[in-house]
Design goal:
It is built from 9 helices and 7 strands, in the order H-H-E-H-H-E-H-H-E-H-E-E-E-E-H-H. With about 300 residues, it is of the alpha/beta class. It has a 5-stranded mixed β-sheet, with helices on one face. A hairpin with a 2-residue loop joins strand 6 and strand 7. It is globular and about 50 Å long.
């Protein structure tokens, strides 16, 4: 069942409703505004997604739950900037989402990119891209740890063989009590190429403390479980229909989004929503620096 158009429109406009106008009428031209100026909810939101345009949020909203804005470069949030990171931390302190979905960019951690790293003509450019990708991954881990520290839930997503999973900072978070990993194939959730509609395996790993994740997020494609054989999986290389196959596969298929929405619903049905206290928000650092975050230790 596809979501009604009015639900999609309402959810896509949440970023504007929460973040106010972006024209900087008060002299602030930052794309992410001070959380103290945002509307103050009376109860926490059930779900938010970070490093993502509205993908899962419309489905969560369609099940009658409250969602916060989707945080991504495409919605006006450049999380490579320290000021935007600080504004997001303030926003999360206000909205206190029950479940936080984190999907940081994976390009620099992919198998293909890492196999080419010693053959690149410009190592300086590659190093710059890698450092920015690492900065965003570290920030995602910091958000994950804060959700755990606050007794809330988080789901961190990356390809299953991404080199990000082997980093010591990731292993530290993965060893947190109550945190687990699960691996699944997105072809079973309907991921296909744009033009030829060929199934795409895209084996994916979750790091999470959300125990109500649907069974579809722990199922791999085998002759017993798949629904598309004898059609072979398409490789995520090259272009199809004028678009990069890798870029097209970044969009979650509908069954992925429905499964996550049901997982959130199953969790929130068993959690009472307390009234929020008055938010105590620290002043933001307005310096748009790209300095690395401090170590993600608590």
């Amino acid at each position: 069942m596809e979501l009604p158009e009015d639900v999609l429109t309402e959810t896509e406009s949440l970023g504007s409703a929460w973040a106010s106008d972006l024209d900087g009428s008060d002299g602030d031209t930052s794309p992410c505004r001070d959380a103290r100026a945002l509307p103050q909810p009376k109860v926490p939101v059930h779900f938010m997604e970070v490093f993502s345009n509205p993908r899962i949020a419309p489905y969560v909203s369609g099940l009658g739950m409250r969602v916060g804005p989707s945080i991504d470069l495409g919605t006006g949030w450049n999380l490579a900037l320290r000021s935007c990171q600080n504004h997001l931390l303030q926003l999360l302190a206000v909205l206190q989402p029950f479940v936080l979905m984190l999907s940081p960019p994976c390009t620099v951690f992919s198998q293909v990119q890492n196999s080419m790293k010693n053959r690149r003509k410009c190592q300086r450019t590659w190093k710059k891209h890698y450092e920015q990708g690492l900065l965003l991954w570290r920030f995602a881990l910091c958000l994950f740890k804060e959700q755990c520290r606050q007794g809330r839930k988080a789901v961190l997503e990356h390809p299953w063989l991404a080199s990000s999973w082997a980093l010591s900072i990731t292993e530290e978070v993965a060893n947190t009590p109550g945190v687990f990993q699960t691996i699944f194939d997105q072809c079973l959730l309907g991921l296909v190429t744009t033009a030829e509609q060929k199934p795409v395996r895209k084996r994916t790993r979750f790091l999470s403390n959300l125990q109500t994740l649907e069974i579809c997020f722990s199922t791999r494609c085998t002759p017993e479980t798949c629904s598309h054989l004898p059609v072979e999986h398409a490789w995520l290389q090259g272009r199809e229909g004028g678009a990069s196959r890798c870029r097209s596969a970044q969009v979650y298929p509908a069954d992925f989004c429905r499964g996550m929405a049901r997982s959130v619903l199953n969790y929130t049905n068993n959690v009472a929503a307390p009234a929020l206290p008055e938010a105590q928000v620290a002043p933001a650092d307005d310096a748009d620096s790209e300095a690395d975050l401090p170590s993600p230790a608590s």
